[in-house]
Design a protein that fits this description.
heterotrimer; A mainly alpha; B alpha/beta; C mainly alpha; A: mainly alpha; ABC transporter involved in vitamin B12 uptake, BtuC; 13 helices; globular; C: mainly alpha; two-stranded antiparallel sheet
Chain lengths: ~350, ~500, ~350
Amino acid sequence: MIDLTQNPSSGDRVKRFLKDYYIYLVLILVVVVLSTANLDKFPLFERGNFLSERNIINILRISAPILTLAGAFTLLMISGYIDLSVGSAMSLSAVVYAMLAINGVPFLPAFALTVLLGVLLGAINGFLVIRLRITPVIATLITLSLYKGVALLLVEDGVSAIKSGGGLKMPSWFNDYGRDGVLLGLPWAFWVAILVTIAMIVTQDRMKLGKYAAATGGNPTAAKLSGINTARTVITLYILVGICAALAGIARSSFMSLGDPLSGDGMELTAILVVLLGGTAFSGGEGRVLKSFIGALIIMSLTVGMLTLVPAYFQTLVVGTALLLAAASNHLVSRKDSES
Amino acid sequence: MIVQTAFAEKAQEKALSVRELTKDYPGVRAVDTVSFDIDRNTVHCLVGENGAGKSTIVKMLTGALTPTSGSMAILGRDYEPGSTQDARESGVGTLFQELHVVDQLTVLENLTLGMEASRFGFLVKSDLENRVVKTLAAIEPTIDPKARVSSLSVAQKQIVEIARAASSGASIIIMDEPTAALSEREVERLFGVIRRLRDSDVTVIYISHKLDEIFELGDNVTVMRDGKHIATKPLAEVNGRPELIEMMVGRAITHDYEPRGEIAGNPVLNVKGLSNHLLKDVSFHVNEGEIVGFYGLVGAGKTEVARAIYGADKADGQIDFKGRKRAASPKEAIAAGIALVPEERRTQGLFTELTIRRNIPIMNIRKLASFGIFQDEREKEVAREYVGMLGIATNSIEKYAEKLSGGNQQKVVLSKCLFADADMLLLDEPTRGVDVGAKSEIYDLIRDLANNGRAICIFSSELEEVLGICDRVFLMYDGQVQATIKNGAEVDIPHILNVVTGGGSENT
Amino acid sequence: MTDQAVEGRRLAARDNRLSDEMFITSLVAGAAVALFLLASILVPNFFQFQNVVNLVTNNWAVISLGIGVTFLLVSGNFDLSVGGVVALSGVLAVWFAQAADGANALSSGWGMPTWLAMFCALIGAMLIGTVNAVFVVALRVPSIIVTLGTMMLARGIAQVITQGSQRNTNLPSDFGMLGNMAMFGSSIKMPVVLMAILILTAVFVERKTVFGRLTYLIGANPVASRLSGVDNARHVIKLYLFSAVMAGVVGILLASEFKSGFSNRGTLMEFDALVISLLGGVAIAGGFGSVIGMFFGAIILATVTSAATGLVLSPDWQFTLKALAVFIAIMAQSWALARRHTG
């Protein structure tokens, strides 16, 4: 009835371009603003030089956990589901990893066992959501509380975190993973984040799982009717998120050189923030792993870079505001898209 | 031996045979020992009134429902689908009324969805892509396989679904009211697609209430009525629409409109130049005490007119109700004295998880409150009054609306509107999914309301309904009122059908 | 037709005298009592009247927040911002009331009289509620995302005002009055009495008023309610403002009780408010639940945590226990409702 074959007007093309590339523009903007701003007030980094090698390395090192997590989280949101327990899963993994390390387990087995723990944590979420049919928000709020609770219980009373002391000492490799430059001055944790992101991009573009995630989020009935096992797809995605949360926990605990049961607090918010910033739709179906990765870089540049401009206690305010703005703009864009 | 072989051969010619198929719901037999055969490579039509059991049969064929008893066979082999997936694997594809394509993927990705070749989870190139692209090109060459499905029209999405079924090796494709949302040109294109399918070794089971389509497209027809099989025969042997309709309704069709004499009332509603995304310059007026109908096929813009008057959708143009300005929201419309019975009863009209008592006062809830405090006793009185007045079949006003039959649910929705003291009722498909008995009760009620001076607008895609009750009928096509006819014995039905399918627009 | 009539009668015979809500609420209340008795057997000295009183009085803040959160959940919306609003309103009240001539930035404020400072703090809380309403109603952003954002926004502002810590000096002498006022010559403080009044009012509003009815309608079927003439947007705006006011009042009373505005006060209270609503049988999808259920949900949570303390479990157990309690509650409710509807 309505002719949809009209050529897009130039205005539409500009909109399209903005929708596809705005995230890169925002990243450039943030970097430009931060690098030209007057940084003398707060001597955390080399003065007045946001783009200094030391500062960039520092930001990328601190960013390793969220960069690791963003890709899998994006795929899960594309499938129309959410995981609020990632922060707690990260804390629990950090604690377990630190416990293994401090008790003399060598790097590889400790690493592998922690990743295995991530599989378990993700599988529990998948089980609650898919098999027991608990709403994703509630199911993962339950595990948020559960994983955090277990992490707290693993750390002895009266001690705030697993760390050197009382006759036990963290092995030196523990800290190296998160801090020691192995390539371009960047540590293993960062390169693992890059590898994970590449793996997620390949998953999204080249694997059945990525396509099935889009189908599950875009039109669940159609996906089921096409013979896609949406339950298995979603459980697999939860497990992927669990694995990435474990890797993020390893990165965080290595960087801080301790297993802190609160180290992942708020990570779910950061993850939601970067994924929304990257243009993933709440309603599912739509989103790009790479854009979430860029979104994570933006947020980390902002929050870390901001420390050079304003006191640390501005951070919550800025992140909260960014979350609201990202949510609003993301939603307005996707709504216009569906109306036209 | 010989006899058996002959039987087997004969059975093999049948794409699908249904034997003594029965489906019971608690207390209701929806399909009653139905048997018929569908010949290979034909378009087999399934017709019947609402509630005749068509959709139950379709659901059993697609594996969505399990029969209570009876059997089905495809090419002589037993067919017992436990799920839609099973059905697909047995070569039965389905085109549902709601679209099942993923907007966010490309056409090609949709066509191969669930059938991808892969190695260790990685997608690999295979001849599947070439095959599905060829299938698509054969039935509709204008669709670009690389296009995102979100950029396609509804008709094109449908064709993508058909291509998917065809390329997944379906030997039978079931189409449930596929033309409901299509324009005439798109329907023609779809028919072309269906004929090409039939010629390429696919059997099509076609469900539609549009009889012209059936005569144009079908080879054989099965008629259902009240859950029972009435007849299966070649359409060539059916003596035109009257015979088909008679088989469907069990009586010759008459529209029993009794002229209610001259409606003396003044115009209460004046609409001028109503336009929005679907409507184009719709103008009309409705008098006090008059029953007017808006007749057109699905997608002609009837619902949009109702929603615009009701303030539920935005539209340009003038709407003048009793000298008041147009309503900006349903709330304002109700305050002005307009009430709507929406198209989708269960999702838009009724609160299914509330009781009858709680449903009835909703549109005028403050009438039962003093100083914001709710009067439970008065609510009960009101509920009892309306249950009695409209003859809602229930033994308790505390019954959940969900548990009522379609007709009784609709009466509850009507009660809501009546309690709102509306001077004008907008009834969108007021008897859809309503059984015959309740239907005539609802018509009687509508006449009573009009006789008491209320203005009634009926928006319907059932011609019998409109001709049975309306004083004047606006014929809609493509978002416009194409013609206005005065109801009476001399109504020219072919003319009406011509107009609502885009064939002409002169007033009579 | 006769079949249907028979079926109708059969279904009607099964129609329940008790509504689903009452059923779940009594279930929750029963569970609360059972848990209390169980704890009394397991934990020495648990079975005391004073202990029952403590279960309520120690939780007045979360229960009060739960009222607004429950109303919003019933209408189909989340409010996770209440914890942040508690911090913000408390900090604002203190900041406004602090004398203007303090020795340093954290000890000097606006020098308002206590009542005005508290009133202005309440306005600040309502501003956060307004942001919630605008984003949820006008921009139609999912409420869970919006209120997570405003949770951080509110707390963020509080942190900026307190420079990441707290303000507790240079306050007028009457600032601590409201939060510490003892009632009826007993040890029960004013905020607890206020909570009791609010609960009773909320139950009345929910059961007996048009406002309560509309809240349920919107949650049960927003499309049908709009077409039935309900102004969904306006109602949800009111609910967000109401919830923000509740959180504001709680924050101000806590600030008064401790005579300080602490930017980390109320951390996780939003989750506790959500948890007790869920324990109390409020459906996350909207259209179902009750304030009284939420109250018993709070009692369940309080019993479990205080029994755990009585059993000398480390306080680190609280997260695990909460997770298990919510899990069991949700499974039990869906099981009970499913049985009720099929059996």
